[in-house]
Task: structure prediction
Amino acid sequence: MKVLLVGGGGREHALAWRLAQSDSVEHVFVAPGNAGTAAEPGMSNLPIDVDQIDTLSRWARDTNITLTVVGPEQPLALGIVDRFMADGLPCLGPPRQSARLESSKAFSKQFMLQHDIPTARFGVFDQYDAAMDYVNGCDWPLVIKASGLAAGKGVVIVDHIAEARKVIQGMLSGISFGESGRTIVIEEFLSGHELSYMIMTDGQRIVPLPASRDYKALLDHNQGPNTGGMGAYCPSELLTRDLEQFILDQIVEPTLGAMAANGMPYQGFLYVGLMLDADARPRVLEYNCRLGDPETQVMMMRLQSDWAQWCQACCTGSLPDIPLKWDDRPSVGVVLGAAGYPGAPRLGDRISGINDVSAEDVKIFHSGTRKLATGEDVTASGRVLTVCALGADRNTAREKAYAACGCIHFDGLQFRSDIGITQSG
Result:
């Protein structure tokens, strides 16, 4: 079959890499892709951006695409699944209404409250005075979130009133995150251990995926501003059998059931970002309607099943009642960021050393790269590469990943040195 993968980041590179390894896949087209996907065997890039839904649908129909897999959240929020389904094209992901679980934090928080999904106390505001009245009655610190999509960066933790005032003004005015910030969610700060829990569902069956630990803050020891993710490891030792059953029984199944009951059936991937308190009780930080980045990269390193067959089964409502097969070895992934990230990243810096990495069980996924006419790769967005490795244990995997990081250079390169070390928060 011919597969279309929509997206151009590290998550999409990892997904396309595994899809292309399937014996049933003739070719994988990645729209728009990056320098890494352009170099993979059995794969080619398309110069079509993820928000060009009509163009993507026409191209898929004209090319006789068998399966489309959507990587990022933006096309889901724009209704790519609705359009492809209307054109008779199988497309893996939730329709636009269901994707509001991610595209509107205000909707998702109110949904959780209505359906008794455990989460932090919160308020939703689009007026400055009402937001400040709410803040004045809360304990510190607080978390302020842009309700709309903000590429994983619309979350700010504030410690005092002056900082809260500045953040609220910036969001509600549209200065900080444009229209995405004109409605905000203010919620209590939850401390503990973060856990990324993801599943795939065909609308009836639920197939759990291995839990990961994501590192959101820019700097070591969880300092600095929030990012889209600076690294991850998989699996997470925090996920016990009892905890997973609780998450499925009390969070995932009620979420999917309530969505279906409200006329918003859900198909595709669901990512539940969780905070575990001191007693390992989970509360939902956020929903994402797609796989995580960089969690997908470390997860795909461990996958042994035919990913194309599973994605096709998910899309056609025929997921099998058997688990996916995974490598027993853990994986660690380290994100290399551009100068200026997560603010205004500097673009166009030449990348060297990628071809010097030849260690076994190490894979470099491109996130924000572009190939020049000269053949050189340059930085093209804030997160540039995710360097992943498998190891007999997590420490071995992280040593291999960091050794590979040491081979790569571009001006302004920044990365955390503590990925793979369990920490609070």
Q: What stands out?
A: The chain has a mean pLDDT of 95. The first strand starts at residue 2 and ends at 7.
